[in-house]
Amino acid sequence: MAHQSALIEEDILEYLQEHENKSFLRFITCGSVDDGKSTLIGRLLYDSKLIFEDQLAALETDSKRQGTQGDKIDLALLVDGLAAEREQGITIDVAYRFFSTDRRKFIVADTPGHEQYTRNMATGASTADLAIVLIDARSGVLTQTRRHSYILSLLGVRQVVVAINKMDLVNFDKSVFDAIEAEYREFARHLNFNDIVFMPISALQGDNITSKSVHTPWYKGAALLPYLETVDVAQDESSESFRLPVQWVNRPNLDFRGFSGTISSGTVHVGDEVVALPSSKRSRVKEIVTYDGNQSQAGKDEAITLTLTDEIDISRGDILCAGNDPAQQTDQFSAHLIWMGEEDLLPGRQYILKTANKSVPANITDLKHKINVNTLDKQSGKTLTLNEVGLCNFATSQPVFFDPYAENRETGSFILIDRQTNNTVGAGMIEFSLRRAQNVHWQALEIDRKARASLKHQKPCILWFTGLSGSGKSTVANLVEQQLHDLGRHTYILDGDNVRHGLNKDLGFTDADRVENIRRVGETAKLMIDSGLIVLVSFISPFVSERNMARELVEDGEFIEVYISTPLEVCEQRDVKGLYAKARRGEIKNFTGIDSDYEPPENPELVLDTSEIAAEAAATQIVKYLEGRGYLSGGA
pTM to 2 decimals? Predict the structure, then answer.
């Protein structure tokens, strides 16, 4: 609720004018589990008399039923609204609260301390101007304290208040406060904070929250709320370049064509020159249209529609920039990534990368290093697990527009989405473009795929054989190639075992290595069909995502998935290489079908079970499929 003022009764218009002109602060509370984040926010609201009477009555009732403070009011219940939060006494989701005082308006994000919900904390931090990091005076600086602090630094929060809470439980001992401050400062000296203020508080008792406490005469700083009312977090937005990610082309009639979106940075005036990306076409601003009418200028966070003096082609997903300082474009870049997925990051796997207004397929081409949140040291690794942070190289299927995150939070950030589940699995902050991507262009060639295929009198394609070890993939693929060879067709087999002796000999059998294994094979097969060949790929290829990635590398109709669906028990009975027996004994790790998953194809072109049909008959069926669809006659 808003701060209560006598002006509400005396002159409501003057009150509204005064309220509108107050400065605004977004801040976040974070830290480890049970450090008192929700209680602190409840105390701020309660002591500032910012709670309605019916809210207070409900809080008293809830405190008796679900609170943790006996007969006293449990202030944490003001922001812990989910049933699961109240039952467990922890914050799970991000809770936003708006309030105001005579001097300033606030939005506070109460974020979870539990490691499992670090992703929710990162969400709250992404828009914060200031962070309050709570530390339990009895426990000191914990791993989650360090993790949250590092994420704050990474996400561009520069003002930090370290609130050392529960000082009442250590008798307001100054030596305890000093020791925690020294430990935190030593850790934070490597972080990009502009200012760190330390405060001894008791959120439960109200010490140093809205006024100075008599229990800490040795503390010379301000109480928390007065500090929040006066701290300067203003940024010089006049130096930021104009950016408008286009969310919608507004075309209500033949006489109007505008480009709608929310300004992510900078200001724009009627008459300014703007450049549209990716076309790089230039024009000038004719009108700035808003819900309240036309304006002569507009700034950051305003939702507007621009009309231009020239008719240029602009679509949703494009971006309008200041004419003298456009955003960068790249399809390869380096970025810090916070991994939020329950399943590990797999370099090489394709994800959806979503920026402010555009979604493109992307993959991590290289994990440069991981960050140890306790020491901030860089560590090598092949994958990221839940809540880990790493520096990665990315490649996108088409260029994206960006500014380095340090310069622009909106255009420098992105999220990663899992293609199968549509879950958000990562949040990224772009560091810089990989310059080599800007200097490598497709070379125009006189002889193309169509010409090569025509010479061979066939249509090139990939026959992708997938199934468990021992299912008969290699046997059937070999027989298919023999039949095609007899018909005078040009083929090549990429077999899983053979490729691992050369191209992929550096890869093991972890999930991350399996993904990279299939990525390389997919790219190789793509080159081979570009030469006009019919390529037979025989790999277990256990993951749907990677098989789909290989399919998307080529044109429609050029990828034929052949699922050799022989059951596991039959494959084990065959066990020609003795691998299943070794896997059952624990001598082989990450063996598909035993301790590593196999994901059956969803919509394969062909399904063949070699426990029900002979390998020769299966091969003949595949060749007839190719003949019936014109792959063995003419050219592409």
Answer: 0.71
